[in-house]
Write a structure and sequence with these properties.
The protein is an alpha/beta fold. It has 2 domains: 223 residues, 3-Layer(aba) Sandwich (D-Maltodextrin-Binding Protein, domain 2), CATH 3.40.190.10; 199 residues, D-Maltodextrin-Binding Protein, domain 2. A 5-stranded mixed sheet has the order 2-1-3-11-6. The longest helix is centred in the middle third of the chain and has 15 residues.
Length: 457
């Protein structure tokens, strides 16, 4: 372990009225020039012959070339399995989740018919459904694609009691730790640990806790997990109209969440650049030995093994990796880990919706989920996949991931999620300035003001 140097912490169907209002709002983002250019590009495969389905995908881990990634492989295999019913191509969305949302919103607001399938980040599903951007999921598809699926994935793909997207893969965070350091600190990692125990252990061992404090969606993920783990919710009534939204930040749960972030930042335990630290930066901090504890997604395990194989990371470091359930806020109270992943939706303006849903049924087959889990490090939504021999060989912590998914708490499901997330990022960043006495109130006032059209982000 590398000792932490002393330092000062761095500074579907929906209500018509709501649908019209949301469409009007997102439509402002689509200029006439953009709309014209997008519509000119629409309708791939609209002529004679085999239609080509276009799947807008989020980037696969480590793949800059979308034609070389796991989703591209699945697109090719499912097209071949269709026996000539359709071809498939992929189009790469930006890396950042918010940028993915923005690009899709612009295109769909312009009624872009080239979007046959899209990979959607769970927090944006309600917004897209409410705006009328998603083709209805047929009942037979919904039934076939939700059997044996973790509940959080189904919940995140549902809006107004209707499945509006199909769960593809799920994600959750674990607590990763250096076994040698945890032992030296006297932590029993076979039992649930709390954030306070980690803070005390890191202080004692002069090491860091790798967290995601960057002003981005990563920070919202952390805040939501803390609030949920403390028994609260960021939003109390996520389906309510904008002017009736009630937030749950000015509560004991909200103040507990802010207190944990404040203590980690003020004690300098989040690393020297906590305010710009994302998931990859956390991984680097943990691999270097500067941090001996880390909350992060399962991708860190294959990344570490690849580093050892390439000779850029000592195998002894990888052998010292341990994993456990996400930290609890209170002793004896079960944690609610972050939930992420991707669901597949069909564009409402696609001329090939039936074929697109056929393609989705192929993509989410258990064997394809197992392949994608092993090849790209993205956990499956079907529970049976976690006992697949190849999955167990590649991810010895598969059982821990499955347990975490069962306990995971989705972020608020609301058409106004973007405003909620941006409001939190604006008021709970940088972490060094987070204060349990003021930050929950500041976030509440900003978010509710924006939703009531009284303030701007």
């Amino acid at each position: 372990m590398r000792k932490r140097a002393d330092r000062q912490p761095g500074v579907g169907s929906s209500r018509p009225g709501a649908r019209r209002n949301l469409r009007r709002a997102v439509g402002l983002a689509a200029s006439g020039v953009l709309a014209a250019s997008l519509l000119a590009a629409c309708g791939g495969g609209g002529g004679g012959g085999t239609p080509t389905l276009t799947w807008y995908i989020n980037p696969d881990v480590g793949n800059v070339d979308p034609t070389a990634g796991g989703q591209a492989t699945l697109a090719k295999e499912c097209a071949e399995a269709s026996n000539g019913a359709y071809d498939m191509e992929v189009q790469l969305l930006p890396v950042d989740a918010s940028a993915q949302r923005e690009q899709l919103v612009r295109r769909l607001a312009a009624q872009d018919s080239s979007i046959d399938l899209m990979s959607l980040d769970p927090p944006f599903i309600a917004e897209f459904s409410e705006a009328g951007f998603l083709a209805p999921v047929p009942d037979d598809v919904a039934q076939a694609t939700t059997e044996d699926v973790v509940q959080a994935a189904i919940t995140n793909s549902t809006w107004r009691d209707k499945l509006v997207a199909v769960p593809f893969w799920a994600n959750t965070q674990l607590l990763w730790y250096r076994k040698s350091v945890a032992q030296e600190a006297g932590l029993d990692m076979t039992k649930p640990v709390t954030w306070q125990q980690l803070i005390d252990a890191a202080t004692k061992q002069q090491t860091d806790i790798a967290v995601q404090g960057i002003r981005a969606e990563s920070l919202t993920v952390w805040i939501n997990a803390l609030v949920e783990s403390a028994g609260g919710h960021i939003m109390e009534n996520p389906e309510a109209p904008a002017d009736e939204v009630k937030l749950g930040l000015e509560t004991d749960a909200g103040r507990s969440a802010a207190g944990i972030i404040q203590e980690i930042a003020k004690k300098g335990l989040g690393g020297p650049a906590i305010s710009t630290e994302n998931e990859d930066a956390s991984r680097a901090l943990f691999e270097s030995g500067d941090a001996s504890f880390m909350v992060n997604w399962p991708f860190v395990w294959p990344a570490a093994n690849e580093g050892a194989k390439a000779g850029t990371l000592d195998q002894a470091i990888v052998d010292d990796y341990g994993w456990a359930q996400y930290p609890a806020v209170e002793d004896g109270q079960e944690s609610r880990p972050p939930f992420g992943g991707i669901s597949l939706a069909v564009g409402a303006f696609s001329p090939h919706t039936d074929l697109a849903f056929d393609a989705i049924r192929c993509i989410v087959k258990p064997e394809n989920q197992a392949y994608y889990f092993v090849s790209n490090g993205n956990p499956a939504v079907k529970r049976s996949v976690f006992s697949d021999p190849q999955v167990l060989e590649s991810f010895p912590m598969a059982e821990a991931i499955a347990t975490s998914l069962d306990n995971a708490a989705p972020r608020p499901q609301t058409p106004y999620y973007n405003e909620v997330s941006q409001g939190l990022q604006n008021t709970w960043h940088p972490p060094i300035d987070v204060n349990p006495d003021t930050s929950p109130q500041e976030a509440t006032e900003l978010i509710t003001g924006v939703l009531r059209k009284e303030r701007l982000l």
